[in-house]
Design goal:
The chain has 244 residues and is α/β, with parallel strands linked by helices. The protein has a single domain, classed as Rossmann fold (3-Layer(aba) Sandwich), CATH 3.40.50. Helix content is 32%, strand content 17%. It has a seven-stranded parallel sheet with strand order 1-10-9-6-2-3-5, with helices on both faces. A three-stranded antiparallel sheet has the order 4-8-7, covered by helices on one side. α1 packs across α2. The longest helix has 18 residues. 42% of the residues are buried. The structure holds fructose -6-phosphate (F6R). The site of fructose -6-phosphate (F6R) has 13 residues, from loops.
């Protein structure tokens, strides 16, 4: 495990983007597992900048995302598809056909999960999986539980999460379910980059990296991955020991 503590959010974002850019230099047809949320936004901006400056080429890249809400169209501003399109894909030379997100509008729940799992198999091993961590230690939508969910699973969001999300949904239609890669799916990537920012994540990050490996802190399992890179900004990582 490598642990890198950077000065601030911008340098955390740059460090993560640099790993991706090096990966694309070595293997232009890399497969990237991507995440949404506020943490990776700066990283996507760095990747877009590299593309604009002519130092990055995404034309052969394939991507697959970690999770998606169920019941939201890809054009809904809170869908993860919309996030990915507007914050990254629309700004670089990637073909939308090469960017997979589970279909949140499919009516048959079993089909959503089956199609997603099949796609993960078909697309093959992700060269890099980008992750953020939730305040409770979740990765993807894998919330603290009594056991690890191995494969793609449909999650009933907790009342707490629904209430927290309601501020983003002016029409009141807050999704109650989401679909996520399972823990085994996440762990099957060749390399995992966990990016973490802000003092609110400091405690849970310490727990995930130095506490017991337990499904009560889903991110703790990442320590068993042979090629994990944690990049935390100073606020999140000030109590960590750097390992390079
Ligand atoms: C996003 C995802 C989530 C986030 C996590 C942190 O696709 O799967 O697990 O990575 O909730 O979110 P932020 O970055 O908003 O703090």
């Amino acid at each position: 495990m490598e642990i890198i503590v950077t000065e601030d959010y911008e340098s955390m974002s740059r460090s993560a983007a640099e790993i991706i850019l090096r990966q694309l230099k070595d293997k232009p047809d890399s497969i990237l597992g991507l995440a949404t949320g506020s943490t990776p936004e700066g990283m996507y901006r760095c990747l877009i900048k590299a593309y604009e400056e002519g130092t990055a080429d995404f034309s052969k890249v394939q991507t697959v995302n970690l999770d998606e809400y169920i019941g939201l169209k890809g054009t809904h501003p809170q869908s993860f598809r919309y996030y990915m399109d507007t914050k990254f894909f629309d700004w670089v030379n990637i073909s939308k056909k090469s960017t997979y997100m589970p279909d949140g509008m499919e009516l048959c729940i079993d089909k959503i999960a089956d199609d997603y799992e099949k796609k993960l198999e078909e697309i093959g091993k992700r060269d890099i999986q980008i992750l953020g961590i939730g305040g409770n230690g979740h990765i993807g939508f894998n919330e603290p539980a009594d056991s690890f969910a191995e494969y793609v699973n449909v999650v009933e969001l907790t009342e707490e999460t629904i209430a927290a999300n309601s501020r983003f949904f002016s029409d009141g239609n807050v999704p109650k379910r989401a679909v996520t890669m399972g823990i085994k799916d996440i762990m099957s990537a060749e390399r995992i980059i966990l990016i973490v920012s802000g003092s609110s994540k400091r405690g849970i990050l310490k727990k995930a990296l130095y506490g017991g490996i337990t499904p009560k802190v889903p991110a703790s399992i990442l320590r068993l991955h042979p090629n994990l890179v944690v990049i935390a900004d100073r606020e999140a990582g000030e109590e960590l020991e750097e390992v390079r």
